[in-house]
């Protein structure tokens, strides 16, 4: 059986900043609830369709404070969805919402459900990345540096794969250029549902910086290692945002007259050395292509999460990807990386991009903290 992608939406991505952040006065649960409410309202999902949704899977990394105690269920109640609709929250770190999406596709493909919402949320202003984590000393001792410091893993990948500071900065400049061009062309207006904030509806991503130049980036100091190459300019920033998809079985499509926009073909998840976690997409994409029997040349578009320019570039080079096919509308360095939100943000942009360009196969892939990688293949219909 197949699982079909019916709808995919996201919020504008805000900067995680106590004074400047778009969502500094909007809670994570409200952000997700408003996205749920608006997406279903926009689809004109009547009571019958909404009541037929079997479950809600949400990815979120920092599952405490306002993101704690199963934000999937709390947000759907806030959204006014039926109390009979359950919800669960999953954690695969940066790939949490792609994991939620893959779980949903598998559940539908196995015939256990007909309609599922899958998405993710992260509010890094209110729930900072390292809040309330107590790593076992044995794990911290086992690796040459604290592998939970993602910036140090980016430095290691830059060294191991000889990715220069210049190349990282040039990659970041291009990410901003592409993101701003895509916004200008109206591409993101098709995927962003504006959420109300005290300053008005949030329509645009806050992190793309017009005027990002090689010269300006070259001025920035390295953050994680004095003799390193990773800076605030060639890293993904800290962000707030939510994304959401609706998946359906063939029967549900027929019953509710839903038009499938893509088929979820397959996915792969792998583990690797936590200190080079940024290389996760390489074995993940290779495994996915092996499983599906597709060659790289059959893939029309990649949405590859840019946790850091060093790892994104090293992955592109190792896999031999055509840079024009990777993140044509910019990536996380410009658009932002609200951890739990990003997986289905990538799926949303991938679907939108395949539809806009007439492409058929697309892969969304992320590196994942603690040394993992994930990749998901969809086929536009
Ligand atoms: C790298 C990091 C520590 C930087 O944090 P920060 O200092 O708060 O970064 P900011 O985005 O606020 O940028 C700091 C400054 O750098 C400069 N800067 C950043 N991007 C720039 C750009 N594109 N052009 C010019 N200047 C830029 C600006 O001066 C900016 O200050 P401003 O916002 O007041 O103008 C943080 O973004 C980080 O930890 N990123 C990685 C997150 C992560 O690990 N995610 C998981 C991945 S697996």
From TrEMBL:
Broad class of enzyme this protein falls into: transferase
An MF annotation (GO) of this entry: acetyl-CoA C-acyltransferase activity
One GO CC term on file: cytoplasm
Chain ranges of the Thiolase C-terminal domain: 258-380
Gene3D superfamilies: 3.40.47.10
Record keyword Acyltransferase present: yes
Limits of the Thiolase N-terminal domain: 4-251
Domain of life: Bacteria
Protein EC: 2.3.1.16
A GO biological-process term: fatty acid beta-oxidation
Active-site residues annotated for this sequence: 94, 337, 367
Family annotation (InterPro entries): Thiolase (IPR002155), Thiolase-like (IPR016039), Thiolase-like_sf_Thiolase (IPR050215), Thiolase_AS (IPR020610), Thiolase_C (IPR020617), Thiolase_CS (IPR020613), Thiolase_N (IPR020616)
Keyword Nucleotide-binding among UniProt keywords: no
Keyword line: Acyltransferase, Transferase
Family designation: Belongs to the thiolase-like superfamily. Thiolase family.
Name of the protein in its database record: acetyl-CoA C-acyltransferase
Organism: Geothermobacter hydrogeniphilus
Organism lineage string: Bacteria, Pseudomonadati, Thermodesulfobacteriota, Desulfuromonadia, Desulfuromonadales
Gene: fadA
């Amino acid at each position: 059986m197949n699982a079909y992608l019916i709808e995919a939406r996201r919020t504008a991505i805000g900067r995680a900043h106590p004074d400047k952040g778009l969502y500094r006065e909007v809670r994570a649960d409200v952000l997700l609830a408003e996205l749920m409410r608006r997406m279903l309202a926009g689809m004109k999902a009547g009571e019958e369709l909404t009541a037929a949704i079997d479950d809600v899977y949400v990815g979120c990394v920092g599952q405490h404070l306002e993101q704690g105690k199963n934000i999937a269920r709390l947000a759907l109640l806030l959204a006014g969805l039926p109390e009979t609709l359950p919800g669960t929250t999953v954690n695969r770190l940066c790939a949490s919402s792609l994991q939620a999406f893959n779980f949903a596709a598998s559940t539908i493909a196995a015939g256990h459900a007909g309609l599922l919402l899958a998405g993710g949320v992260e509010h890094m202003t209110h729930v900072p990345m390292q809040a309330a984590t107590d790593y076992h000393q044995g794990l911290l001792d086992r690796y040459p540096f604290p592998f939970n410091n993602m910036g140090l893993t980016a430095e290691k990948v830059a060294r191991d794969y000889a990715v220069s500071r210049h190349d990282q900065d040039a990659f970041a400049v291009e990410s901003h250029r592409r993101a701003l061009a895509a916004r200008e062309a109206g591409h993101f207006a098709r995927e962003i549902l504006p959420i109300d904030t005290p300053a008005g509806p949030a329509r645009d991503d806050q992190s793309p910086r017009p005027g990002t130049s090689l010269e300006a980036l070259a001025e920035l100091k390295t953050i994680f290692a004095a003799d390193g190459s990773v800076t605030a300019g060639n890293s993904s920033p800290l962000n707030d945002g939510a994304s959401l998809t609706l998946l359906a079985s063939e029967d549900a499509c027929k019953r509710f007259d839903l038009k499938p926009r893509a088929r979820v073909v397959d996915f792969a998840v792998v583990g690797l050395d936590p200190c080079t976690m940024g290389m996760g997409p390489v074995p993940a994409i290779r495994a996915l292509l092996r499983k599906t029997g597709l060659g790289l040349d059959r893939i029309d578009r990649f949405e590859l999460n840019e946790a850091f320019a060093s790892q994104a570039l090293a992955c592109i080079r190792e896999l031999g990807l055509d840079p024009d096919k990777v993140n044509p509308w910019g990536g996380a360095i410009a658009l932002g990386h609200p951890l739990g939100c990003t997986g289905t943000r990538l799926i949303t942009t991938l679907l939108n991009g395949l539809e806009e360009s007439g492409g058929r196969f697309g892969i969304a892939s992320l590196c994942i903290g603690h040394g993992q990688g994930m990749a998901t293949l969809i086929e536009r219909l």
